[in-house]
């Protein structure tokens, strides 16, 4: 159930952060296209390569539609069990399976959406404990996000560009991936 | 005032020091928004203009603080809205829950007390009354200067309220008033009007 990619979506469905987790060694350049290349234009030289492959971007985008369906405009919160509170109430759960992946959602009280894409290789019996682990991972990511917003120099509601956030996120996700690796 | 970060180690800020900081923040804004000196023919207007600018500046600072602190305080906070409701009813109850969160959690974090009184007309207008706002307790009563300064300082909590609500998805206009003009500057009310 290794984590593959993560998207943080703002209040008005604007992307705040999109990231694919991969080994630098097996990064396949054909998957990481600049937007310019989609239209046959030459790739820009002054920007670092995209942080997320096209396939993952498409998956995260389509998962957002499903998210909207569940969370929707008020009265939303259809996913919540009665009397759930805190993290349990924020965890939307499985949004949809895509090929060999599963996409999970999480929405904070301040309407920030987290979409996490994981490998689908757990046995059916393990599913409850797996959900629990993903919930915990998403809560950790939520805390990292909060820490990032508390920084008075970060701009509010703008895409996240913080090396500190990235490195903390990376270590959190790596720790999780190690824990679930068999 | 107390802020705790999620790293585990709680960091605290001394109340007195924070009060000094808030006062100095107003001074700083006043120094940066001096009335335009070239418009001598209408000095009064220039002064009023400068005062407005100071209020706007302090309010913006408060907005940023309110916005960010809400993100932190709402980390473990959810409120249940009964499903299958009429949209208008659901929106109204959402707003009420958000304002309650502001009165309880945010105020507790900032001033170690809750708001004294919350009134609403259930149509998007809320009036919050705090009878002894900590930052305003030491203001002298009666002097005109003190009143102007107090008004400027009060924009800071106004901004915090606006930032908090805006992060919870409620765009609002916040204004403030003194309740007991002759006796104390610390009794004030905040009027919230949801846009």
UniProtKB/TrEMBL annotation, chain A:
GO cellular component: cytoplasm
GO biological process: endoplasmic reticulum to Golgi vesicle-mediated transport
Origin superkingdom: Eukaryota
Membership in a protein family: Belongs to the TRAPP small subunits family. Sedlin subfamily.
Protein's name in the database: Trafficking protein particle complex subunit 2-like protein
TrEMBL record, chain B:
Gene3D superfamilies: Trafficking protein particle complex subunit 3
UniProt-recorded name of the protein: Trafficking protein particle complex subunit 6B
PANTHER family recorded: GEO08327P1, TRAFFICKING PROTEIN PARTICLE COMPLEX SUBUNIT 6B
Similarity field: Belongs to the TRAPP small subunits family. BET3 subfamily.
InterPro entries membership: NO_sig/Golgi_transp_ligand-bd, TRAPP_component, TRAPPC6/Trs33
GO cellular component entries: cis-Golgi network; trans-Golgi network; TRAPP complex
Pfam families associated with the record: TRAPP
Record-level GO BP terms: endoplasmic reticulum to Golgi vesicle-mediated transport
């Amino acid at each position: 159930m290794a984590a593959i990619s993560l998207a943080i979506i703002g209040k008005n469905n604007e992307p705040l952060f999109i990231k694919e987790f991969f080994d630098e060694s097996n990064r396949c350049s054909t998957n990481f296209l600049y937007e310019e290349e989609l239209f046959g234009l030459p790739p820009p030289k002054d920007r670092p390569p995209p942080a997320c492959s096209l396939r993952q971007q498409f998956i995260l985008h389509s998962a957002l539609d499903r998210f909207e369906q569940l969370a929707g405009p008020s009265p939303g919160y259809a996913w919540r069990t009665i009397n759930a509170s805190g993290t349990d109430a924020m965890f939307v759960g499985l949004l949809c399976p895509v090929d060999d992946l599963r996409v999970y959602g999480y929405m904070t009280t301040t309407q920030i959406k987290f979409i996490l894409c994981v490998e689908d290789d757990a046995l059916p019996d393990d599913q409850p404990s797996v959900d629990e682990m993903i919930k915990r991972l998403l809560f950790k990511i939520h805390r990292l996000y909060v820490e990032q917003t508390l920084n008075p120099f970060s701009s509010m509601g703008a895409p996240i560009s913080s090396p500190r956030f990235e490195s903390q996120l990376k270590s959190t996700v790596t720790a999780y991936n190690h824990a679930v690796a068999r | 005032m107390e802020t705790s970060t999620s790293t585990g180690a709680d960091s605290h800020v001394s109340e007195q020091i924070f009060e000094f900081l808030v006062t100095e923040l107003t001074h700083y804004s006043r120094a940066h928004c001096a009335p335009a000196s070239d418009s001598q023919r209408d000095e009064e207007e220039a002064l009023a203009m400068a005062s407005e600018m100071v209020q706007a500046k302090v309010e913006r600072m408060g907005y940023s603080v309110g916005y960010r602190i809400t993100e932190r305080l709402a980390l473990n906070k959810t409120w249940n809205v009964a499903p299958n409701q009429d949209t208008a009813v659901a929106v109204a109850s959402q707003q009420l829950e958000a304002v309650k969160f502001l009165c309880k959690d945010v105020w507790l974090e900032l001033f170690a007390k809750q708001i004294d009184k919350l009134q609403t007309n259930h149509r998007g207008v809320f009036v919050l009354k705090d009878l002894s706002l900590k930052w305003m307790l030491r203001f002298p009563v009666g002097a005109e200067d003190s009143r102007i300064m107090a008004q400027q300082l009060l924009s800071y909590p106004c901004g915090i309220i606006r930032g908090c609500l805006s992060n919870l998805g409620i765009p609002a206009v916040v204004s403030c008033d003194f309740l007991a003009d002759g006796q104390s500057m610390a009794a004030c009310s905040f009027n919230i009007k949801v846009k």
